[in-house]
Model the fold of this input.
Amino acid sequence: MTPAKITVQNTPITITAKNNNDYICITDMAKARNDDSRAADIIKNWIRNRATLEFLGTWELLYNPDFKVVEFDHLRMQAGLPTFTLSIGEWIEKTNAIGLTVERGRYGGTYAHKDIAFEFGSAISPTFKLYLIKEYQRLKEQDNDPQQLEWNAKRFLTKTNYLIQTDAVKNYIIPQTNYTKTTEWLAYADEADLINVALFGCTAKQWRDANPELAKTANIRDYATINELAILSNLQTHNAELIKQNISKEQRFTTLTEIARYQTKVLTEAEKIRTNPQELKP
Done:
């Protein structure tokens, strides 16, 4: 699952889910205070502080039954000494802590359970901490909005059905063409745009050219309505079946366009009835 993003005082911050809990990237948070190269130093200085260790230890005692208390007490006794150093990795390894984690890859960095991340916000500034909490709460409210949940569900369904379609392209179109490995993606793009044009009336590139600012962070399907996403999902599944039947691209486009128009009309009428039931009365 793609991590969520919030922006706190112009600083993008990643939020990921782990064991049904939200973990916030404190590496991203640290960048709000200094340049990227100093983020690791800020975290190291924070964790070696006695007050920080007291907070982390208390949190682990509350929520982690496997927390190694003896090792924690040993570290707490050393905290504050000039020679004391501690990394996130050492803290996790020595105490079996779960409140902090280090992730690799595209969204790599040090992540902290939201309770701990809010505490770390104080190391940036009290103001930053308050804005962090505010933006996090806004994200949760948005996630729990019924209409947003419906949109997300249909977007997920669309993406799932896209996998069905691309699998059909891979197995039924590419083997019959002379695409080289480096240009294989063209077949996928063609099929995606076949549906884009059938539903939206333009290709993805045409939409990007017409919406350069929006295209920096999104694509044409991200701005689709809930009804359009439902239709898009249906078109992708239907297109996959047509591909398997060796129906030509021209015939498929005609069929998909007709389906898109019909389903758009049906859903539009249904929406009118739902929002204006008085119109049904004589």
About this structure: DSSP finds twelve helices and five strands in the chain.
